Amino acid sequence: MKRLNVRYGSWLPSKEADEASLPFSTLDPLMGDHYNLYYEPEMLFELGSAFRIFATEAVTFSIQQALAHTIMGALLAGLAFPLALTKLGYIVDNPWANALDRSRLAGLILADTLMNRNLGARPITLVGYSLGARVIFFCLLELARVKAFGLVENVALFGTPVSGTKAEWKECTTIVSGRFVNGYATNDWLLGFLFRTSTAGLGNIAGLRPLSHIEGNRVQNLDCTDLVTGHLSYRSSMPKLLKRAGFVVTSEELPVKEKDNKASLEEVRLQLAQNNRQCCS
């Protein structure tokens, strides 16, 4: 019986349906049948646009480097964010808050879909990054609530924007019969910034830290810090991340379309950095 792999992405650079599946396009067909769930395209495109504005027009290349390599530890220790960033929070805060709520609702819908066997009665692997990982988290919580065991075989989450409790994560692991992978990056300053007002604290966010002391030791924590430069790079780094998590991929390289987008974004960053240096000189 062929395994069914259900993939959930996150923000979108455009409203085209194939953008949602692009980060997972190098998964080998030998891994089973692949389904990509395309949800809330307008909202995810709006979030993607907000992220791009924040990354290119609001934050210079030099500030990003400083945040990734020197300030992240201070942020996780509870110190204040740079004032320049705090003033720019309005660019992403509302789209991000909407996306968090919609992803929770999408998780409940996914749970209902799995329980109704709409995808057939086959071993299911759930894979997601960023908001897609959040969808899966709430899906698992709902399945645990109704004791719907035997539906999900494996789970792989990357950069999960969830500050769940140990009890909630334990509930999630009870639903998964096979591997439960949590991919995190300690240098993800953007994820830390987006959760800066969280009362739970940054230390509880799965995408920033390993999930430790979860009863049963079911979680396989995967340090992805060397593969991602921040939250925005999860999308383009998925082939390498999937391979590290044990998936078979046909290539570790990005599809050409994504490479072009990444190159264009980097050109904008460099141009902005150059303009800032000229203005300050």
Can you summarize this structure?
The protein is an alpha/beta fold. Helix content is 48%, strand content 11%.
Describe this protein's structure.
- There is one protein chain.
- This protein has 281 residues and is an alpha/beta fold.
- The protein has one domain.
- Helix content is 48%, strand content 11%.
- The protein contains 10 helices and 6 strands; from the N terminus they run βαβααααβαβαβαβαα.
- It has a 6-stranded parallel β-sheet with strand order 2-1-3-4-5-6, sandwiched between helices.
- Helix 2 (41-58) packs antiparallel against helix 5 (90-115), helix 2 (41-58) runs parallel beside helix 10 (256-280) and helix 6 (131-145) packs across helix 7.
- Keywords: Membrane, Transmembrane, Transmembrane helix.
- Pfam families: DUF726.
- Belongs to the TMCO4 family.
- The chain crosses the membrane at residues 71-92, 124-144.
CA gyration radius, whole angstroms = 19 Å
Counted beta strands: 6
Average pLDDT reading: 78
Q: What would the principal axes of the Cα set say about the shape?
A: globular
Count of helical segments? 10
The rounded distance between the terminal residues' Cα atoms is 65 Å
Could you state the order of secondary-structure elements as H and E?
A: EHEHHHHEHEHEHEHH
Uncertain regions spanning at least 5 consecutive residues: 266-281
In what range is the share of β-strand residues? 5-15%
Q: Could you give the order of strands across the largest sheet?
A: 2-1-3-4-5-6
Helix/strand class: alpha/beta
Number of structurally distinct domains? 1
User: In percent, how helical is the residue content?
Assistant: 40-55%
Main sheet summary? 6 strands, parallel
